[in-house]
Amino acid sequence: MAEQEEKSNFTKIIVVMAILSITLVLALKADETKHLEMAGASTTLEGNAAALQAVKRYDNNFYE
Fold it and tell me: DSSP label at 33?
């Protein structure tokens, strides 16, 4: 009698897991920088200049 080969789903499982992993990584990577895009939407050049001047005026002197 001829022996029947058992079907192994190992390759299919590996391919599905790889596709799932790549998809999730790409989705999370796209979501990672979303807060950076929204933060600059409402700032103006004048506001940025005022914030820079406030930082420059800060006296970080620890020697008294």
Answer: T
Q: Which two tokens stand for residue 55?
A: 């930082």
Residue with tokens 């789903």: 9
Residuewise pLDDT in 10s, the chain (64 residues): 556 667 789 999 999 999 999 999 998 887 777 766 655 556 677 877 887 887 777 666 666 5
Placement of tokens 């058992």 in the chain: 6
How far apart CA 61 and CA 64 sit, in angstroms, is 8
Q: How far is CA 56 from CA 27, 37, 47, 48, in A?
A: 39, 26, 14, 12
